Amino acid sequence: MNWLQIQNVISMLGGLLVLAGVGGGAWLLANEFRLRAIRRGRMQGAGGGQVEIARASRRNRGGGFIGSQLLGTVRVLGQQSAVRDPAKLSVLRSRLMQAGFYNREAPVIYLGLRAAALALATLGVMLLLPVLVGGKAGMMGICAAALMAGAAILGPDQVLKVRRSKREREYSEGFPDLLDLLVASVEAGLSLDAAVTRVTEELVRRYPTLTVHLRFLVLELRAGKSRKDAWSAFADRLGIDDARQLATMLRQAEEMGTSLGETLTVFSQDMRSKRMLRAEEKALALSAKLTVPLILFIFPCLLGALMLPAVARLAHVFGKH
User: Which of 5, 38, 222, 312 is 20 to 30 Å from 115 by CA-CA measure?
Assistant: First the structure.
């Protein structure tokens, strides 16, 4: 079998895969429309007037209706992925909350978007396959296919990782200020719950993301959740070690009956010392990080500025002879 026959076979396989993908997508859409028709018939049997009003409002919205249809399709894909692996759903919900997605349907939408991205990347690679086999695209086609595959596989996780790291930096920077304000409020005579409410109002401009979690904590405490469970959930939402240590410290102080003000004071001083140690660590690591830019950029320029006059002088002297 020569190279031309291999190209023909690969092209046929690519065409079959594209047809299979299009057929599978059409089957999914037809199944979704069938389910929607069944639901619509049930709703019409329950109350036709309200359905007509809802249908008229959807027609009036136009673009919002299209967006809701796309969101519904993504949600269906996410539900199918969640059904396949329900054990990881709680872990994914925790990761999404740490990245700033608090909606109850966030895991389903995330899984749906990830499945849609994989499907689009697969379809794009299939469409590029005949061009790649024919040798028309060259290295650009291979790079485009690799880029699409990498973006579909690693893109969603990288977005979550970047958002989570950005928020964790804000949490780490704002935690010492939070503890200082808590100590001041508790020593002024407020209870811990009232102190958290007061601190939330004070930190809303400087650390807006941190105050969102503090508001969740206040609402959970007002709803009757135990202080131990509320602070543990607060630490899980933040995802940093300082918050977990604070939750453990508050639980131990409540169980042993120790003074809350003194405990918070000691813990706040410890957080301040850790903050200074982190700043000193960054300052000491700066010289090592500057070594490579100095060698690659500044040192050649300095060497050229020092050697060019001598080189010009030597060229002038030897040019006379």
Answer: 38
Report for 40-54, 92-106, 125-139, 155-169: range of highest mean pLDDT = 155-169
Look at residues 75, 87, 147 and name the one whose alpha carbon lies nearest to residue 113. 75
Q: pLDDT at position 151, please?
A: 80
Radius of gyration of the chain (CA): 31
Give CA–CA dist 132/215, Å, rounded: 54
User: In the predicted model, what is the mean pLDDT of the chain?
Assistant: 76
Degrees to nearest 5, angle at CA 193 with 187 and 197: 95
**In the chain, what is the greatest distance between 2 CA atoms, to the nearest angstrom?**
108
Give how far Cα 227 sits from Cα of 141, 267, 270, 321, Å.
Answer: 58, 18, 23, 92
Q: Are 183 and 265 in contact (CB under 8 A)?
A: yes
**CA distances from residue 1 to 4, 6, 16, 131, 296 in whole angstroms, order as listed:** 8, 7, 21, 21, 52
Distance CA 312, CA 319 (A): 10
> Are 126 and 195 in contact, with CB atoms under 8 Å apart?
no
pTM: predicted TM-score of the whole model, two decimal places: 0.63
Backbone angles phi, psi at 294, to 5 degrees: -65, -45
For residues 86 and 233, what is the distance between their CA atoms, to the nearest angstrom? 21
pLDDT for res 62:
44
Is pLDDT at 233 greater than 70 in this prediction?
A: yes
Angstrom distance (rounded) from CA 225 to CA 217: 9
Binned at pLDDT 50, 70 and 90, residue 121 comes out as confident
Round to whole Å and give the CA distance between 244 and 229: 12
